[in-house]
Design brief:
The structure is a homodimer of 99-residue chains. Chain A has helices spanning 4-18, 23-30, 34-41, 49-58, 63-78, 92-95. In chain A, 40% of the residues are buried. In chain A, 62% of the residues lie in helices and 0% in strands. The first copy, chain A, has one domain (4-82): Orthogonal Bundle (434 Repressor (Amino-terminal Domain)). Chain A has 99 residues and is mostly helical. Chain A is elongated, with a radius of gyration of 15 Å. In chain A, helix 1 (4-18) crosses helix 5 and helix 2 packs across helix 4. The first copy, chain A, starts with a helix and ends with a helix. The model of chain A has no long low-confidence stretch (mean pLDDT 89). The first copy, chain A, contains six helices and no strands. Chains A and B meet through helix 1, helix 4, helix 5 and helix 6 of A and helix 1, helix 4, helix 5 and helix 6 of B.
């Protein structure tokens, strides 16, 4: 089973490390505890929506960017092809299911 | 503040209704309680990663599709432009922050 919290944790950690910042720095900027952020990054805890908003803001990344990166990683894990062009929104037909 | 659970709830409800299915049907297929699924759809509770996997499977939609739709909606709310082409993965530079 592909778990959102594991992919999300990987993306948040990768982004933080790409910025050369420590857990301590980002947790302080996001006003969340270092231990909680560490557990989020390791995929051990679910991030609340409020925490996720704070952490992405502290990283200077729009939440939509982080979620799109997570979606792309999960698509690879699911073996779902990534289209070259992405519509603004899924159509009713797409939302109506693939099966 | 843009909250993931609210956008996620909207996407899950839209997908279920597009399939003409009731809360009762999807909650039974996903093996989650009707009340819990209802709260998720209304953005009142955080979905655990396991519940999200079960519900997307019950809807016949890859988790990556649902998350991409959520990301697109949040991008609109954030005023972040949606590129015509999406790379397989964000570059190190992009993950290093926009600010």
């Amino acid at each position: 089973m592909i778990l959102l919290r594991q992919e999300l944790g990987d993306v948040l950690r990768t982004a933080r490390q790409a910025q050369g910042r420590t857990l301590r720095q980002v947790s302080a900027d996001a006003r969340v505890s270092l231990g909680y952020l560490s557990e989020i990054e390791r995929g051990q805890k679910e991030a609340s929506s409020e925490l996720l908003a704070s952490v992405t803001e502290a990283l200077g990344l729009p939440l939509s960017f982080v979620l799109r990166e997570v979606a792309d990683r999960i698509a690879v894990a699911e073996g779902v092809s990534i289209p070259d062009t992405v519509p603004d929104s899924l159509t009713e037909g797409e939302l109506a299911g693939l099966h």
